[in-house]
Amino acid sequence: MKKIFVIFGLLLMFAPSWAQEKGESRLAIGLGMGTKAAICETSADKVFGTGLSVIGDYFIRDKLALGSSYTFFLKSTIGDLANGQISYEANTLNIVGKYYFIIKKVNLYALGGVAFASEKSVLSSALTEDKEFKDNFFGVVLGAGAEFNLGDKLFIFTQSSYNMPLEQLIMQAGLGFKF
Fold it and tell me: Is 128 left (phi over 0), alpha (psi -120 to 50) or beta?
């Protein structure tokens, strides 16, 4: 199921540039920090986790863009194989619309769309067979962000969004290219 979400997201990221020649396309890569994206030994709850994000946008109007983003949160593990080990990983695929408020070299935007999320936990032990638990979610994502132009083709961005399927706040920052 996760592979289907990744392929679907990549197609949506690049399909608009195949379908239309006018409009600006953007591709950005960044780091993400998300609540409920990792586990730790001192808490039974999920905690902040770090991930990698790929974001693609295509402007269909001057201030309106369609896009998608995929964030893969790095696996977190607690325990050891001798006594039992638990690993956890999550990822999200968002398909969004963005409305831009352009102020000179800073572009502020609001975003909203649909979110697909999945999480996987694995319980491992040297004495027993691994047990894997997977779950997929579908819901809404809402957020806002800012882009700071570094020239005609380069920008840095920061974005915060709330992913309702995982009840997760995701903060991202990175570097983007316009083409």
Answer: beta
Task: Please give the Cα distance from 15 to 51 (Å, whole number).
Answer: 25
How far the first Cα of the chain sits from its last, in Å, is 31
Which residues, 6 or more positions from 33, have their beta carbon under 8 angstroms from its beta carbon?
A: 48, 49, 50, 51, 170, 171, 172
Chain segment 93-149, per-residue pLDDT in tens: 999 999 998 777 789 999 999 999 998 989 888 777 889 999 999 999 999 999 999
Residues linked to residue 42 through DSSP beta bridges, in sequence order? none
Q: Residue 9 — φ and ψ, nearest 5°?
A: -65, -40
Domains and CATH numbers, the chain: 2-178 (2.40.160.20)
Q: What Å distances lie between residue 63 and 101, 107, 179, CA to CA?
A: 7, 10, 16
pLDDT tens digits, 31-78 = 998 887 766 766 656 777 899 999 999 999 988 999 999 999 898 888
- Residue pair 138/97 in contact (Cβ under 8 Å)? The answer is no
- Confirm whether pTM is higher than 0.85: no
